[in-house]
């Protein structure tokens, strides 16, 4: 039986401050059962895309660890960048790689969202296959109004 591998590709709203980028990288890297594959900062967009893989539970924990660090270190009231964004953690897709179907990735997204919203008391919007609401299926639908318009959602 093949081991289960899920890929997670969170986008964080920081692409300039190397200390913050490194702290988020370390939060992922230090999570047991995950391998950080890539860190791609974009200074003009002021966001960094991280790519890591592991078993489903480890990937959820890695995403939570990264989000906890971002919550502490990224001040969205001061964030500026060329790319639309909704929060310190803008998107966090879970992608099936090996021995996993999309249904399990949907479960990962929902479990991650629930844990994140309860622990950090932040709004979380599911999109794509994980969303039950048609008007929140695409990222552009969710990003309408961006971070500054979050209270109107």
TrEMBL record:
Coiled coil residues, start to end: none
InterPro entries: Formiminotransferase_N, Formiminotransferase_N_sf, FormiminoTrfase_cat_dom_sf, FTCD
PANTHER family: FORMIMIDOYLTRANSFERASE-CYCLODEAMINASE, FORMIMINOTRANSFERASE-CYCLODEAMINASE
Residues covered by the Formiminotransferase N-terminal subdomain domain: 4-153
Pfam families per UniProt: FTCD_N
Protein name: Formimidoyltransferase-cyclodeaminase
GO molecular function: folic acid binding; transferase activity
SMART domains according to UniProt: FTCD_N
């Amino acid at each position: 039986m093949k081991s289960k591998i899920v890929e997670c590709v969170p986008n964080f709203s920081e692409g300039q401050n190397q200390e913050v980028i490194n702290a988020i990288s370390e939060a992922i890297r230090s999570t047991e059962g995950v391998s950080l594959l890539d860190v791609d900062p974009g200074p003009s967009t002021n966001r960094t895309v991280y790519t890591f893989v592991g078993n489903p539970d480890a990937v959820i924990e890695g995403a939570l660890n990264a989000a906890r660090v971002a919550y502490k270190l990224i001040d969205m009231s001061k964030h500026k960048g060329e790319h639309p964004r909704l929060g310190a953690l803008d998107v966090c897709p879970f992608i099936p790689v090996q021995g996993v179907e999309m249904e399990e990735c949907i479960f990962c997204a929902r479990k991650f969202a629930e844990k994140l919203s309860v622990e950090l008391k932040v709004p979380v919007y599911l999109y794509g296959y994980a969303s039950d609401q048609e008007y929140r299926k695409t990222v552009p639908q969710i990003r309408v109004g961006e971070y500054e318009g979050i209270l109107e959602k």
